[in-house]
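Protein Entry — a single chain follows
Next Lines — sequence and tokenised fold
***
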Amino acid sequence: MQKLALQQAWQAKQRDPQRTVLADSTSSEGWIAAPVPGTIYEALIAAERIPDPFDGLNELAVQWVAEVDWLYRCDFELTAEQANQPAALHFAGLDTIATVWINGQEILNSDNMFVPQRVVVSNQIHVGANQLLIEFRSALKHGHALQAEMGQLGVWNGDPSRLYLRKAQYHYGWDWGPALLTAGPWLPVTLELGATRLSDLACPISVADDCSTAIFAVTATVADVQADTAVLIQLWNPAGELIAEHQQLVVAGNIQHSITVDQPSLWWPHGYGQQHRYRLAVKVFANQTVLDQQELQLGVRRVRLVQEPLLDEAGETFLFEINNVPMFSGGANWIPADLLTNRVSNEHYRRLLQAAVDSHMLMIRIWGGGIYEVDHFYDLCDQLGLLVWQDFMFACGMYPAHPAFLASVEAEAIAQVQRLRHHPSIVLWCGNNEDYQIAQTFNAYDHSFQGDFTKTSFPAREIYERLLPKVCASYDPTTIYWPGSPYGGADVYDKTRGDRHTWDVWHSAMAPYQDYPKYEGRFVSEFGMESCAALPTLLSVIPEHERYPQSRTVEHHNKSEGGARRLAVYLNDTLRFENTLESYVYATQLMQAEALAAAYRGWRRRWGGAGRYAVAGALVWQLNDCWPVISWAIIDSALRKKPAIYSIGRELAPISAGLQRNGATIEAWVVNGTIESKSATIQLTGYDLHGRLLFEQNIEYELAANQANPIPSPNLNLPEQSVVGMQVLVDGVVVARASAWPEPFKYLPAYDPQISVTRMADDWLEISSQHPAKGVWLQTEAEINWSDNLLDLLPNQPQRIQACGLGQQPIDIKWLHWDQART
């Protein structure tokens, strides 16, 4: 089969409602070049018809784009040989209310941006010039019409009409992103020439309980079978050796063949083993001519979601076990990396996901208000050993469940599960984000009711509890399905079962972040604290006269309802800072880092060993941003890492240390996340703020594998203005550190801790201080890759980090109250 990518010579224009579509398409007025795949915003920005929506307050000036209709057209030439073949147009994604014509003949209507469409056009194409025309009607107006017909539904974030459309929900605006209702062919458009094709290829892998064998169950579906059509199935092991080959004639269009592999090479999450993958190739041929072919990269792994009673407390676990190893799933939530997703390069994806790996994150949750990500995203997760929790695209709303909507959702689910099911990184399909939570808030959720959900005030249960699990069972039977996030059965806020979103800090009661450990769940799939994007990122979109914390533009770039006020409360409770944008950025980022570290540290402490895995995962909201903004992200839209990603990395490291002050006493623990016990030396020290040593103690301790280990610590009569530190040494090497400081930090005096930085070979640095130093943040003008940052320093305990690409660049250093100490 020949596939011609139609991505050149596309044009777009605003639709003239005074003309018919076909008449409007022949007009020479108003057309601009348009990237495909792409959206109308990209075309308008490139043609300088609109300003950059991310800059300043420009978002407000471009809302008209969503209120009008748009036309796209593409002219392409076909030879006689091409035009005389069976042909079909394949649209990987049309955003969203679209009608398509080829050479003046209407061929398709589409209203779901997540459903690929394939239309046979053999009788519509011809030799020479052909024209493809697509009308994209205003999704905003279409949604409003449906809402007027069927009623307004309950929603958090964005225009409520979004619930009636199968369109990325974050396009309507969210509490971290602007409202930009895109339109256009957002995924590739392809002309397929040739009839016989491999229309589906599946290979679920059954793994023995002890992982000693794996059965590859290959199913191939061939459309438009010719005489003597055959299929060749080949399987290569991770070393590149052909280990199985099978050929047979295609009779009824379907081929099934099983391959058993003994002692398979397993796919592991990073840190636990290699990411081995097998290569499956299937070719369709006739008369020694290959008609179509596909390849899949497959990983062999045994995944269990273990929900078993705990030994010493109520409820049950919610833990992921991979290849029979229980794993604490620390990680992050993922949102689309741009409002205009075609601008996200493969390198952009790699840098974000590599940063997650470098921070010892094990799991990424793809949030249900965005998009099903591009293939490259999942390929990277497979390669890097990141587990993926995949939401279906429903978020924060009381979705409808009328027949047409259900049919569209089913087509969407089938298409996306078929596309993604072969990725070993995907370990969970999840029905939605917070839809059970909003239903419970509206008193619309009765867990005990199991009748006709479509007749209740929470009709979308038909989607989450019947339609989606049925699709997953049919098309991806080896992957777990979970109804929603959060979900625990009768109560979405239950701390003892299922997964939980912990927004008691920041939202809800605005609890102190130090109390994060109290608001646990068996798996905390969302929690977070806001902070500013990096200063250069903010400066790139804020005009010079608006560069202060309370400016209109700065607050416009914080989409959280009451976000500036909430941030001010937490800052007031925690820190003091000068009223400059530079100080504000550092203060918010330091506070975010402290808050998230407290959460991960406290919850990972509850990883207590077999029968006592009381908290089995924590996914921060959120890893990344889609524009320059003050948000919960730990990497901003310019890929600048915030300090929090380093504090999280230390808490999720294979071995991590924890300290907690309780008056004059100290509680200490060490998490050994490896699968082997470790003989360790635990060093406890105490210093006053002048750098005087108050106490020192060494403890020899055997750290049990894959659990938190309480460390006996002395009862100390500590002065209020003192700092306690802990170092964990294995084979004489420091593998983890922790420090406990008096809080709130705003009461600590401002002083110069006398920090020194020694440059060593290969961009290594040794950092030390004469006095305890909190939140030491190293920056350079040019971007470099720090192995660690945002350090807490104690006297006589130098720390070594690598700064790849540093060279002789000057280093700017900030620390707690640096702005007061320097004035």
